[in-house]
Amino acid sequence: MHRQETDSLTMGDIIFDAVAMNEAAVAGDLDESRFRARRIASLAAPEGFDGIAEAASTLSRLLGPPGSEPQPGYGAAMVAISNEIDLAFGDA
């Protein structure tokens, strides 16, 4: 597989997970949001999408462990992930 194809697949996975993460949060399923945030970080970091990985890691920290109450600022952290995706993928 060519690098460009890998980037496109990773980009699609990250965007899909970001949408699922936000939808889960709106539905009150923060454990699903936690899972998606960790997955975004794990997909982004090895591909060099450092801004996305850092934003997702920050969100994971703010959401805390499964079943816990999230810390203040987690909504802004979700927006930060979207902003980093726009920067990395050119408003893809």
Structural overview:
The protein contains 4 helices and no strands. It has helices spanning about 5-25, 30-45, 50-65, 75-90. It is an all-alpha fold. It is globular, with a radius of gyration of 13 Å. α1 runs antiparallel to α2 (about 30-45), α1 (about 5-25) packs antiparallel against α4 (about 75-90) and α3 packs antiparallel against α4. The chain has one domain (about 5-90).
Structure annotation, total helices = 4
What is the count of structural domains? 1
Total beta strands: 0
Shape: globular
Strand content: under 5%
CA gyration radius, whole angstroms: 13 Å
Helix fraction, binned, reads over 70%
Main sheet summary = none
Question: Helix- and strand-based class?
Answer: mainly alpha
Q: Which descriptors apply to this entry?
A:
globular; mainly alpha; 92 residues; 4 helices
Task: Draw up the topology in text.
Elements: H1 3-26, H2 30-44, H3 50-63, H4 74-89
Helix pairs in contact: 1-2, 1-4, 2-3, 3-4
Summarize it.
This protein is an all-alpha fold and 92 residues long. The chain has 4 helices and no strands.
